[in-house]
Amino acid sequence: MTELRAIDVDQWPRREHFAHYRERVQCTFEVTVDLDVTAFVAAVRASDAKTYASQIWAIATVVNRHPEFRMQLRGDGSPAVWDVVHPMVTVFHPETETFSALVLPFDEDFRWFHDAALATMEQYRDDVRMFPQDDRPRNVFDVSTLPRTSFTGFALHVRDGYDHLMPIITLGGYRTVGDRTVVPVAMQVNHAAADGFHASRLLDELEALFAEPTWLR
Asked: Catalytic one among 86, 114, 164, 191?
């Protein structure tokens, strides 16, 4: 059973930073980067895997490696970390020009996740409610997409969002740069949970997964 485990703040190296950005300078920061997905695109096209589900698995895999991106506040406002977090993704309904937000259960096994994700999307394909699942868990982080737009910057402004510690990630459309294919990835981070180092590491590891897509099987 997935647990939300309290952080031992007295032994936590980031306790001072957490307190500063929770109590004195509440803020989030955003970063947008182009990730090289040349090898990933070629591998997807050569397989039977679907691009969106594959992208989501890669993102969720890297997010789940790092406790700073699995953080949530407990009822008393203290920081805690989930054992695992699941991606909540947007799925577009062209007939209504709206989207649904679906939680896709994460699994380290790519094929298991991929097939389960497709089954979930198919199950709710015609349900145009914004949140069609009645049993959404609390341990989720957000992934959305602007598939028709290859942006160079993206900003999300969440009113009273300083209690939201998990990352919010937005994908754009592919763009060709020379002989490479790149995808813009925007990431919003709560500064109480993570710093620039942590955000950079996550993005570097995500690009590394895309560069060696042997997991696409």
From this structure: 191
Rg (CA), the chain: 17
Locus of tokens 């990730």: 35
Q: Which residues contact 69 (CB under 8 A, 6 or more apart)?
A: 63, 85, 141, 166, 167, 193, 194, 198, 202
Name the residue among 25, 17, 41, 32 with its Cα closest to residue 176.
41
CA distances from 37 to 84, 90, 199, 208 (A): 26, 21, 19, 9
Q: Are 201 and 211 in contact (CB under 8 A)?
A: no
Give the residue among 160, 209, 215, 159 at the shortest CA–CA distance from 183. 209
pLDDT digits (tens, 9 = 90+) for 72-126: 999 999 999 999 999 999 999 999 999 999 999 999 999 999 999 999 999 999 9
Contact by Cβ (8 Å): 54, 104: no
Q: What is the pTM of this model?
A: 0.96
Give yes or no: 198 in active site. no
